[in-house]
Amino acid sequence: MPILAVVFILSFIGVVGEVPVASLLLSDVNSYTLAVGMQQYLYPQNYLWGDFAAAAVLSALPITIVFLLAQRWLVGGLTAGGVKG
């Protein structure tokens, strides 16, 4: 069970931050994911750092909540491959 929790957390982080696939598949501005929408704040003409920072905090919230809920299994999963001796 602990190893599955580690795999779930790492997969969840990868899916939440997936920018290349989402930016290729989504053409409508209203259907952008949060990561693709954050990329729209960083153009060479105008960098909206305040908006980008707020979106970064919002994108970190789901990952933080999932981590806090699965925290007790993570330690066991990360150390399951360690060698005892």
UniProtKB/TrEMBL annotation:
<dbReference type="InterPro" id="IPR035906">
    <property type="entry name" value="MetI-like_sf"/>
</dbReference>
<keyword id="KW-0812">Transmembrane</keyword>
<keyword id="KW-0472">Membrane</keyword>
<keyword id="KW-0813">Transport</keyword>
<protein>
    <recommendedName>
        <fullName>Maltose transport system permease protein malG</fullName>
    </recommendedName>
</protein>
<dbReference type="InterPro" id="IPR050901">
    <property type="entry name" value="BP-dep_ABC_trans_perm"/>
</dbReference>
<feature type="transmembrane region" description="Helical">
    <location>
        <begin position="47"/>
        <end position="70"/>
    </location>
</feature>
<comment type="function">
    <text>Part of the ABC transporter complex MalEFGK involved in maltose/maltodextrin import. Probably responsible for the translocation of the substrate across the membrane.</text>
</comment>
<comment type="similarity">
    <text>Belongs to the binding-protein-dependent transport system permease family. MalFG subfamily.</text>
</comment>
<dbReference type="GO" id="GO:0005886">
    <property type="term" value="C:plasma membrane"/>
</dbReference>
<keyword id="KW-0762">Sugar transport</keyword>
<dbReference type="GO" id="GO:0042956">
    <property type="term" value="P:maltodextrin transmembrane transport"/>
</dbReference>
<keyword id="KW-1133">Transmembrane helix</keyword>
<dbReference type="GO" id="GO:0015423">
    <property type="term" value="F:ABC-type maltose transporter activity"/>
</dbReference>
<keyword id="KW-1003">Cell membrane</keyword>
